[in-house]
Amino acid sequence: MSAASSENNDVLSVGGIDLTRLAGRAGRTPFFAYDRTAIDDRVRSLRNTLPAGVGLHYSIKANPMPAVVHHLATQVDGFDVTSATEMALALNAGMPAGRVGFAGPGKGHDEMRRAIASGINIHLESLAQLHLVTALGWELGVQPSIALRVNPDFHVGHSGMRMGGGATPFGVDASQVPELLRELKACEVALAGFHVFWGSQCLHARTVIDAQRRSADLVMRLADGLATVPRYANLGGGFGIPYFAGEMPLDLAAVAGAMHGWLQQLRERLPGIDVVLELGRYLVGEAGVYVCRVIDRKVSGGRTFLVTDGGLHHHLAASGNFGQVLRRNFPIVIGNRLHDVPAERCHIVGCLCTPLDRLADDVPLPDTHIGDFVVILQSGAYGRSASPTDFLGHPDAIEMLV
Ligand SMILES: *Cc1c(COP(=O)(O)O)cnc(C)c1O
After folding, report:
1. Ligand 1 neighbourhood includes 197 CB (under 6 angstroms)
2. Res 268: pLDDT
3. Which CATH architecture has domain 64-279?
4. Is the CB of 382 under 6 A from ligand 1?
5. How many other β-carbons are positioned within 10 Å of the β-carbon of residue 130?
6. What is the CATH number of domain 2-34+285-401?
7. In angstroms, rounded to a whole number, what is the distance separating the alpha carbons of residues 358 and 329?
8. What is the tens place of the pLDDT at every residue in 211-265?
């Protein structure tokens, strides 16, 4: 994303196309636009910075738009999926089944059967899932490929959304893994690897480094009693992106620097093992914008409200209702007045008839008119697909990869 230089440098552009033309292409607002060049740049910087041979997986749930998934299929080494729909997306995009991992605490009978039939790696999260996989493998005459999703026996601080350590529905507690491995020996399944997911949206390099090192240690401990070296260790992702004022980008160079140490140890102890990181928002989050338009402007109780044609039904995260404890504003600009100086403070709201539908509270803005573009940045992940699109029945948002 950048200011279009040629015609009108006051207008934001995405992928080299300015907002007016993008809106023309979409046919209407609101829309999401994802910049493929920005995605490519992100993948390239990861490849250039991380130690050689570290696999990059894309977690499809961050942005399941088929064009985005297809685009990433040739850039990353694998996909992580969490449902039969995402599984089909991954396979339709041409990703080989052996490089797709299927995680989730509640895997249904039908999706499990499909995953086994297509040869996807099933990340088991309970003893019951092991029994189901074994039974379905027998029924289908296929040996399922499985990995154990381990709930790590450590906590990490600073992580935005903690999903590992302590009591959780995700994965199998590290302390229960030896028992599960004993049970596994009696089952006709192939253990492909371990999956350790310790958290999400972490901007603090020291925390990521610590979590990765502890995850690698955990995998080494768990693999100790195995007859063969597992094919892969998925050590989670957790790389965050800055959303709010004062947040700094993750120091990727520091994370990469520390990786060399534990990676060498892991590779010596478990020769041939592939180390994989699974990233969602870090790959696509900063590559997307959400664009809606001001359709009304009013003053109430001395405050100016800009009402837009967008809202939480497209972008729940920006409204602050997607797991945030304290509501904070996503970065927001008036896309056709990029360089105008702030002239007023406004509240930007969506068009839904609920007080939850706030897009920005008390933001300094240039003099803003009906028809102007409100652009929410950092909207490439957990946008449309993480929003209640049917709520109140307004039109869906368009999505474009440009
Ligand atoms: C959601 C999820 C991810 C991706 O998280 P991001 O914060 O988008 O990087 C990775 N792995 C698992 C198991 C997940 O559930």
Report:
1. yes
2. 96
3. Alpha-Beta Barrel (3.20)
4. no
5. 21
6. 2.40.37.10
7. 9
8. 999 999 999 999 998 989 999 999 999 999 999 999 999 999 999 999 999 999 9
